[in-house]
Amino acid sequence: MRFTIRFYILFVSLFFLSQCSLVPSTEISIIDGKWAINGELTNKGSKAEGLLLNVRMVNATFEDIVNPDFNPKENYEKFKNKIADYKASGVNAFALNLQGGMPGYEGAINSAFKPNGKLKYEYLHRLADIIRVCDVQGIVVILGCFYQRQDQVLRDNTAVFQALRNTVIWLKEQQFGNVLLEIANEYAHMGYNHEVIRNEDTLIEMIELAKSIYPELLVSVSGMGNGSISPRIADSSDFILIHLNNTPLGKYKSVFEELMYYHKPIVCNEDDKIGEEGVQALNLAIENNCSWGYMNKEVNQFVPIEFLGAEDDTLVYTKMKQLTLPIEK
User: Fold this and answer.
1) What is the number of other CB atoms lying within 10 angstroms of the CB of residue 31?
2) Which residues pair with 174 in a beta bridge?
3) Among 94, 133, 146, 317, which residue's beta carbon has the most beta carbons within 10 A?
């Protein structure tokens, strides 16, 4: 009898513990065109109030099944151990991707999807662990589904839709409140094998599919490095997602002014300007009410991948921290 009672108490305790672990600490939302976490504008009282300053860490969950020398577990744990450091430097969000990003060489096979669109458990384990650590620390994750050079892992168009469906169902089941969904990275990129990812009609179908499964999930699709986005994609998205790699600093203001027409939060989640140029890009974005996304591909994306916290780029992270601190009155 004592054993039965003890077992019951243990079972109940574990059950409630597991339920508590599912309750999100960080809920991202949009309030009057600005970003808010748990109902309060981000970076309150600072020059970056209502913005999501983010860093591209798409290879934090990287694997390469044709390169057995690369250790995915060691790689993602290195990143996980530096999350607090990035947070302390003013980072509000990380950009991750279920198919990663360019690792600095061709031929890598890095995907959380099986050929039929089902999800791979080990990949999801790494991703979920990172998302939960971010959740506890008040950090948002901009999660991409598809990446050029990797979509060919999926065998056909049906598998592409199935991969998206499975991803959104998984996010809903996990009850993540700190995730924004980027259906495709640079959707017009010629590196995609499947036309449904590059086609605006089918992309809009994907946005609608994701919203039908998980209405609370905020969804978008990113454009190319020139800072532009299709009007139809912009209208269908919850927020505007752009890249600025190929955009000269002198054109930033005109890019942002054009996008303001949609009256939605503007988020850049990829800009490869580093050092002093990165500082200028960051300043210009904030001055024009755009959430800026820093990408240091040589350090954080190309193998061997490093995650050094603020030491990745002391100029950029020092400025980021300054801009997210409350303005002294």
Assistant:
1) 12
2) none
3) 146
